[in-house]
Amino acid sequence: MDYISGWRLYAFEELLSTNDEAKKEYINNIASNVIITTNKQNKGRGRRGRSWIDVSGNLFMSLVISFEMKNLGYLSIISSLSLLETIKNISPDLIVNTKWPNDILVDMKKISGILIEKSEIDNRFIIGIGVNIANSPKDLSSNYYATSLFELGIVISKEQFIKKFLEFFDKNIKNFKEGKLQDIREKWQDNAINLGKDIAIANDDVLTKGKFVGIDENCALIIEEKNGSHKKIYAGDVYN
Ligand code: BTN
User: Fold this and answer.
1) Whose CA is nearest to atom 10 of ligand 1?
2) What digits encode the pLDDT tens for the residues 112-153?
3) pLDDT grade, residue 86 (50/70/90)?
4) Against a cut of 0.90, is the pTM above it?
5) Given 90, 117, 199, 227, which is the most exposed site by the fewest CB atoms within 10 A?
6) Environment class of residue 59 by beta-carbon count within 10 Å: exposed (0-12), middle (13-18) or buried (19+)?
7) Ligand 1 atom nearest to CA at 43
8) How many Cα atoms within 13 Å fall on the side-chain side of residue 174?
9) What is the C-alpha separation between 224 and 197, in angstroms, rounded?
């Protein structure tokens, strides 16, 4: 075990999934603020039952943090905003966007994904983050294009990336605790892809269409339907 920016770091060579490791008892016995990383992830999981491909050299990490269940939407927004700020800090000229609920895109291509899961301990969550540092999966059956920092001409070590990310993450958590909720939402929304545009949200078999007008005070997605009424969306995949 090591420390990185005040967080306990458990770094592995090979794991099935950092999120699964984060659910183990030895982690449950530690107070909050733990990070698990692995160089190789053999059974990485993505949102909505998808898998997350192990591309050599990429970052796979899980953060364990105490947070109130009722604020879960903010954990998602804070995590993705912190990733956006990290990437922008590394390379200010890149076009980086947030995509609801918690993807990060560069030049409209996915560079990072987040899978938040509950730990067995009350009010503890696992934020699983994959960042394409070295390469991106070239899976043509996927419904989005992907990119990586390296493909964008940026060389950064995983350790440097984690350090920077934690600076932004800790700052945003502090802002949250100080009640700066609107500020957090605005920063996320100012960088959101497709704001003001027509989108479709697929949730299982249900497809909802409308204009993406923002996120509400619980970080749910708000769309404006053809008849002008507003509808809140709590889960799903967004398409344009
Ligand atoms: C998504 O976009 O579908 C979310 C992908 C989350 C992948 C990360 S990699 C580290 C952590 N461990 C996992 O098994 N998944 C997350």
Assistant:
1) 60
2) 999 999 999 999 999 999 999 999 988 655 556 999 999 999
3) very high
4) yes
5) 227
6) buried
7) 14
8) 6
9) 10
